[in-house]
Amino acid sequence: MSSEVPDPTDVEARTVETVRIEDEMEQSYIDYAMSVIAGRALPRVEDGLKPVHRRILYAMNEMGVSSGSSHRKSSSIVGETMGDYHPHGDQAIYDTLVRMAQEFSMRYPLVDGQGNFGSMDGDPPAAQRYTEARMASIAEELLEDIEKDTVDFSSNYDDRLQEPDVLPAAFPNLLVNGSSGIAVGMSTNIPPHNLGEVIDATIELIDNPDATVEELMDHVKGPDFPTGANIVGRDAIYSAYKTGRGRIRVRAEFEVEEWKNDRERIVVTELPYQANKARLVERIADDVNEGKIEGISDLRDESDRDGVRVVIELKRGANTEVVKNQLLENHLERTFGVINLALVDGQPQVLTLKETLAEYVSHRKEVVRRRSEYDLNEAQERAHILEGRLKALENVEDVVDLIQESEDRSAAKAALRESFDFSEPQAEHIVRMQLGSLTSMEAAEIEAEYEDVQAEIERLEAILESEAELLAVIKDELREVKAEYGDERRTSIVEDEGTVTHEDLIPEEDVLVVMTEDDYVKRMPVDQFDAQRRGGKGIIGADVKEDDRVATVFRANTHDYLLCFTNQGNVYRLKTYEIPEMGRTARGKSAVNILDLDPAENITAIVDTDAFEDDEFVTMVTQNGYVKRTAGEEFDNILSTGIIAASLEEGDELVDVEVTDGTQDLVIATEQGMTIRFAEDEVRAMGRNARGVNGIKLGGADAVAGLVATDGSDERALLTVTRNGYGKRTLLSEYRTQSRYGKGLIDIKTDDRNGPVTAVKAVTADDSLVIMSENGQIMCTRAGEISTVGRNTKGVTVMDVEEGDAVASVDVLPAAAGDGDEDGDEAA
After folding, report:
1. In a domain, 242, yes or no
2. Where is this motif: GyrA-box (predicted)?
């Protein structure tokens, strides 16, 4: 079968190209991305404008809608821009026009608007048919000399007209007004600055091209937002100027005022840039109503056309400093992420402060050079004409006679050129002159003008021949712009006294943290619970919902960092104060709102990292009897999503954790009352992802209940508490050391009365115990209330557990040094 050969005369066959769809999609997306980057979303470094801004200003310039003209309907400007230069939706063009007119959006508005152009409260502007606009005076500085071939032009979208690729820009608008935009795979967010400061820095760079960022910052103190407010700290500013990226904290301006009846109020007068005032007030009110901010009695917005004024009245006796810090933490301070990204030679580039100014100076040098060439050519042409007129005045009678004797204008021009050696332009000009201009008085004026033109030619030639002269012109023009439009800085820079955190608002105190199996968690002050004698029922400590039960209770300080180990072998880190404080009868808050727990994941052990010392280990034991040690330093940096603490076999769970020093003994206790004691160094240190080694041989359906660390000099006792509320203390010295992975010794009898072991702890007689039942009953007692007996005994009643309830958790509150004695011990 012969293959078909395409007909070489078939045009369609010759123009069809076969490509892989992956290649075509990749190239098409790249083309689209670059179109968005260069044609819509990013500003050019030279004039700081995106295409839509540049086209609006150029369209207004072509329409004659200058700062000295009357206002024109915004719809007219939008229509002209859309029809001639920007073939996109009219609403997008109008939104841009509106922003250029908003004094709270632009540091130096480029459009002078008349009518409703929106507000800081997020109110939308009126429709474009109702508003009017014209160019602001400062915008004309961006277009100055555009008619003198100072910038390149390109055809508009339908090749009917020419539009500028960039504006001449008599000041560094990219820094002065800033810019923001989202492109494909990148974004820009450049803050506005003070015009005078930026111009001073530009002049400094012209005078000293080797100037450092630090030297430029002697002039540019930092961003200068149209809404004022305060920038907190200088380090972030320096980072943004040094690298092109940074995160600047912007804080509202407010003051605390004395008010009637010994009360105070906080008055906010300036808001962070781009903050929505109405939404801000609404969010503060919501937090007050929800109890997140306490001490506020009234909140109102008294702002008017003269400025912002939000009044926050405080209750009598309210802690003003706490309220102020709460407002700063959640409402009155925000972060401005600086990304100084702009188009340089058509390519997106992150620029430092120095690079941004250097690119502007380079652009301005080109503009002034091209303008000078244009003006020089105009001046030379004018001088040539004036030379012809002067020559004509010298020969005025002969010139007049020759013109009168010529048949027509063409003959006159030819005769003038032949008789007096005039050029074509000179001859053309002379024959068009009125005879009355060829007088002696006119000669004096021409000679004066000729001298002026010659001086201008010399000046322009000097500029073109000397870069120093050219730079001097740039500096002079920058100073003129500063003199005309410069103003005082609005945004202050205050010292960074540290970020306000919730920790600043929480007093240091010891609390009890209660967690249920369904991961409801809360904290309560320890002093809510009085000590009782053993055998009591306790009081309600948590309102546990149906089908849930208490899993653990422990004591911590509100400012401690806690490592929360889960049954799945993961570990999370949080501050105690991040756990919500609630009353005794409250259920608590779901832990998934605090930690990123899986649905089947429960916290089984807590370690207070404030007790960590150098060279310590985190020692863990699993339900199936595996034990492992990992260096504490491996738990220094824990993500909010948690990290792996131990790899577990299927069906195994992490049960308990102790902090050890490498020289201690480990005591593992099981639910059926067995214990084994062996040297810690029998378990080699291993990484977080390791499973561990066998610690104890479990019999039948037995499982590990807990872990205790001790040493040979330890005079403490092993406290064992069972599910049914019974327990005992036995001196740790009675548990002899064995080799790892043995069956161990009997610790306590786990018959029907006692039930299985719930918890084991190392205690002294003066330690306090917090015992909590699955149904939420909580009891505090001294460890000395519980009898000290030998191994393999039943123990005594520790907590009177009601039918259907059981002991869930035991925590130890160590006694202060020197407190108490051993008199509370009882004989079995």
Report:
1. no
2. 532-538
Q: Are residues 478 and 591 in the same domain?
A: no
Range of the domain at 316: 253-331
Looking at the structure, do residues 321 and 284 belong to the same domain, yes or no? Answer: yes
Q: Is 7 exposed, middle or buried (0-12, 13-18, 19+ CB in 10 A)?
A: exposed
DSSP 111-155: EEEES----TT-PPPPPTTT-EEEE-HHHHHHHTTGGGT-S-EEE
Spell out the SS3 assignment of 373-433: HHHHHHHHHHHHHHHHHHHHHHCHHHHHHHHHHCCCHHHHHHHHHHHHCCCHHHHHHHHHC
Count Cβ atoms below 10 Å from residue 132 Cβ, excluding itself: 18
User: What mean pLDDT value characterizes the chain?
Assistant: 87
CA distance 254 to 210: 40
Comparing CA positions, the residue from 728, 777, 783, 735 lying closest to residue 754 is 728
Rounded to whole angstroms, how far apart are CA atoms 283 and 312? 13
**Strands 717-722 and 757-763, bridge-based pairing:** antiparallel
Q: Which of 485, 515, 548 is the last residue of a domain?
A: 485
Residues 6+ apart with CB under 8 A from 707: 619, 620, 621, 627, 655, 656, 657, 658, 666, 667, 668, 669, 760
> d(Cα 474, Cα 57) in Å, to the nearest integer?
23
List, in order, residues 6 or more apart from 280 with CB less than 8 Å away: 271, 310, 331
Average confidence (pLDDT) over 504-518: 74
Query: Would 186 be classed as within a structural domain?
Result: no
Domain assignment present for 231: no
DSSP strand pairing (132-135 vs 153-155) = unpaired
Q: Which of 209-223, 350-364, 524-538 has the lowest mean pLDDT?
A: 524-538
In this structure, are residues 619 and 709 in contact, taking their beta carbons and an 8 Å threshold?
yes
Which residue among the candidates 130, 157, 450, 741 is catalytic per the annotation? 130
Residues with Cβ < 8 Å from 17, sequence gap 6 or more?
none
Give residue-wise pLDDT tens across range 254-302: 999 888 877 889 999 999 999 999 999 999 999 999 888 888 999 999 9
Residues 264 and 386 in one domain: no
How far apart are the C-alpha atoms of 375 and 148, rounded to whole Å? 8
Q: Which of 192, 172, 196 is nearest to 485 (CA)?
A: 196
Is this structure's pTM higher than 0.70? no
Residue type, 168: P
Could you read off the pLDDT of 465-505 as tens digits, one per residue? Answer: 999 999 999 999 999 999 999 999 999 998 876 555 556 55
Catalytic-residue membership of 58: no
Look up tokens 């003006």; give the residue.
Answer: 375
Structure tokens at 208: 């000293």
Strand boundaries in 550-591, DSSP class E: 550-557, 561-566, 570-575, 589-590
253-258 and 264-270 strand pairing: antiparallel
pLDDT for residue 439 is more than 90: no
Q: CA 183, 185, 187 angle in degrees (round to 5)?
A: 50
User: Among 705, 724, 733, which residue's Cα sits nearest to residue 790?
Assistant: 733
